[in-house]
Design brief:
By secondary structure, the protein is of the alpha/beta class. The protein has 10 helices and 12 strands. Strands 1-4-5-6-7-10-11-12 form an 8-stranded parallel barrel, surrounded by 6 helices.
């Protein structure tokens, strides 16, 4: 049986870890290198580093910071933010990333997914999808959630798998930072449509939310940020409770 993964997320702005609610009202959450070391030590299965303003500011991901984080941990490390070319991915993998997370650039140029999967292999290509409900339908948003599109979340998820993505990181903008639980219904629907791993993101507020997410959607991984940053939930306690609920995890 494959174990479910618990992933810590570092949202980076101006070289610091930040956290907001519904993608706005950002507050400082600490030094990314120190937080990365802590999560690696505390039992996180993976770490995701998202340079959340890189696309909006039309610049590349912070390579030096990626390198310092990569050197400080011994768990798989995914990096996203401002990635739009084969060269960008090559630089990040050389800087220490194990996988890259690409969002806006793939919507503007879907063929990029095919090109990156052909060049680097699907195993290191994560397509991040930010979406929220508009008139009851899940619509994809770009540029850190600031630009709405008419693209249907589930149609896009199916398309990115066909194009060679190895994994999907789905963030519900409606749930993000609210600590009200994951978008389990949408996650379950997506999971029924694709065969690649899905990472649930947006809404974690307590341990029960993770239990509910895995039991109701059966996704492969669940991600959180602020509840780990501010020590509201300890990763080891979370994993023990998941195990108590017959959910396979690595302890």
């Amino acid at each position: 049986m494959l174990t479910k993964r618990i992933i810590s997320c570092l949202d980076i702005k101006n070289g610091r870890t930040v956290k907001g609610v519904n993608f706005v009202d950002l507050i400082d959450a600490g030094d990314p290198v120190e937080l990365a070391k802590l999560y690696s030590k505390e039992g996180a299965d993976e770490l995701i580093f998202l340079d959340i303003s890189a696309t909006e500011e039309k610049r590349k991901t912070l390579l030096d910071l990626v390198s310092r984080v990569g050197e400080s941990i011994n768990i798989p490390f995914t990096v996203g933010g401002g990635i739009s070319s084969i060269e960008d991915v090559d630089l990040l993998l050389k800087a220490g990333a194990d996988k890259v997370s690409i969002n806006s650039a793939t919507v503007k140029n879907p063929d990029l997914i095919n090109q990156l999967a052909d060049k680097f292999g699907s195993q290191c290509i994560v397509v991040a999808i930010d979406a929220k409900q508009i008139n009851g339908k899940w619509k994809v948003h770009l540029v850190g959630g600031k630009v709405p599109t008419e693209i249907d979340l589930f149609e896009w998820a199916v398309d990115v798998e066909k194009r060679g993505a190895g994994e999907i990181l789905f963030t519900s903008m409606d749930n993000d930072g609210t600590k009200s639980g994951f978008a389990n219904e949408a996650l379950a629907k997506m999971n029924s449509l694709v065969n690649i791993p899905i990472i649930a993101s947006g809404g974690a507020g307590n341990i029960q939310h993770f239990v509910d997410c895995f039991q109701e959607s059966n996704v492969d991984a669940a991600l959180a940020a602020s509840i780990f940053h501010f020590k509201e939930v300890e990763i080891i306690k979370l994993k023990k409770e998941l195990k108590n609920n017959m959910i396979a995890v690595r302890l």
